[in-house]
């Protein structure tokens, strides 16, 4: 089968590569339909990763969040036209202790391995899951990010002590919003408090019990457990505030990606017996749990539909470039491409 792969070759430059693909009985061919942009993709598009990383990873097709329709299943288990979510993490081994998304040997789409900006994506059979018919399609495009939120809260549940009175989220963007919707589902008896830098973004978190601008947090406010969803340069200040406002023995789940190392006040981490838990990416089990949560909770689906910030049909390389540029200036929500190349 001949396939067209849309690869980023250098900052803001894409090329089309025609490749011959073979499809084994254990694989499925998917035509991408709705693709959503992650911060990680923007760091490659704008050339923000270090030069040695760019040299090593490019050229590469971007995008690891998306849904598409099945074109061919050699085993006939998925009917042609079935909408499926594509799981970007592709493990090559099983470990009895380390989950697939923490195995250094795993391949991750749009991070050194071609993402879904292709005419067809050939995936291993266990890397696709059917999307229920009543799910909104642009919202379904970022189920991957929901699965990362699920992974974060699963790790929090596995690590935290018995105190679930107040869950604090630092970050008023996409990941913070997704984590907040999930906290409402998975910790229904907890108070949800969100900390952000923009009142106009915090206004979207109307379902939270309380929101604070980060320069207006009462000195005596305490959270039981915390999730850091900021990333970039904001991580350092967010982690410092978490350490200041979390109860002794609390767990902070760190999810924001920073290009530069950030300083952490380890003296306070030690003194208060805190746990800092890193969380990255997700695996099939997180996708299954995410789809189950969304299936069971129409209100969570509605809240996540409010996170669709920008949608546009793309048909040409110029459309793709324009779309990535629009996303950079988009204030609220996820940017979702209707993939029509
Ligand atoms: N661990 C993982 O697997 C994943 C990690 N990520 C990472 O998560 C991070 C966030 O992504 P996303 O939500 O899409 O990004 P957004 O830019 O949408 O959200 C981040 C928000 O946090 C705000 N912020 C910055 N500093 C602070 C602070 N100290 N306290 C509170 N809020 C702050 C930002 O404001 P401002 O814009 O003014 O700085 C912005 O509104 C990125 O680094 C991304 O790469 C994303 C997906 C998966
Ligand atoms: O977004 C993510 C998962 O959804 C991860 O943060 C992303 O995969 C990190 O990749 P990279 O190391 O290439 O920046
Ligand atoms: Zn991502």
TrEMBL record:
CDD domains: ribitol-5-phosphate_DH
Key words of the record: Cell wall biogenesis/degradation, Metal-binding, NADP, Oxidoreductase, Teichoic acid biosynthesis, Zinc
Pathway(s) this gene product operates in, as recorded in its UniProt entry: Cell wall biogenesis; poly(ribitol phosphate) teichoic acid biosynthesis
UniProt catalytic activity: D-ribitol 5-phosphate + NADP(+) = D-ribulose 5-phosphate + NADPH + H(+)
Known cofactor(s): Zn(2+)
Annotated EC: 1.1.1.405
Top-level taxonomic group: Bacteria
Gene3D superfamilies membership: Medium-chain alcohol dehydrogenases, catalytic domain, NAD(P)-binding Rossmann-like Domain
Annotated family: Belongs to the zinc-containing alcohol dehydrogenase family.
Protein name: Ribulose-5-phosphate reductase
Organism: Lactiplantibacillus garii
Gene that this sequence comes from: tarJ
């Amino acid at each position: 089968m001949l396939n067209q792969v849309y690869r980023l070759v250098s900052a803001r430059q894409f090329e089309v590569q025609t490749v011959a693909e073979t499809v084994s009985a254990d694989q499925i061919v998917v035509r991408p339909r709705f693709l959503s942009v992650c911060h990680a993709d923007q760091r490659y598009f704008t050339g923000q990763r270090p030069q040695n990383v760019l040299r090593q990873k490019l050229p590469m097709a971007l995008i690891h969040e998306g849904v598409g329709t099945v074109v061919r299943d050699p085993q006939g288990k998925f009917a042609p036209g079935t909408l499926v979510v594509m799981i970007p993490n592709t493990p090559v081994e099983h470990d009895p202790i380390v989950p697939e998304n923490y195995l250094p040997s795993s391949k991750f789409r749009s991070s050194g391995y071609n993402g879904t900006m292709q005419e067809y994506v050939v995936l291993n059979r266990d890397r696709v899951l059917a999307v229920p018919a009543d799910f909104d399609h642009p919202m379904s495009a970022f189920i991957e990010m929901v699965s990362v939120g699920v992974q974060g809260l699963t790790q929090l549940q596995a690590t935290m002590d018995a105190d679930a009175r107040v869950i604090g989220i630092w970050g008023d963007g996409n990941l913070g919003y997704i984590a907040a919707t999930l906290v409402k589902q998975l910790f229904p008896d907890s108070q949800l408090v969100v900390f952000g830098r923009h009142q106009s973004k915090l206004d979207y978190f109307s379902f939270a019990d309380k929101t604070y601008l980060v320069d207006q947090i009462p000195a005596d406010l305490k959270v039981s457990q915390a999730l850091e969803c900021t990333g970039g340069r904001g991580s350092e200040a967010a982690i410092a505030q978490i350490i200041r406002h979390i109860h002794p023995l609390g767990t902070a789940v760190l999810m924001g990606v920073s290009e530069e190392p950030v300083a952490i006040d380890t003296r306070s981490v030690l003194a208060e017996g805190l746990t800092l838990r890193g969380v990255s990416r997700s695996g099939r089990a997180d996708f299954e749990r995410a789809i189950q949560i969304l299936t069971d909770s129409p209100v969570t689906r509605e809240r996540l539909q409010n996170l669709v910030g920008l949608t546009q049909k793309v048909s040409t390389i110029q459309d793709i470039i324009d779309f990535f540029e629009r996303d950079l200036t988009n204030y609220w929500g996820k940017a979702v491409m209707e993939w029509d190349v």
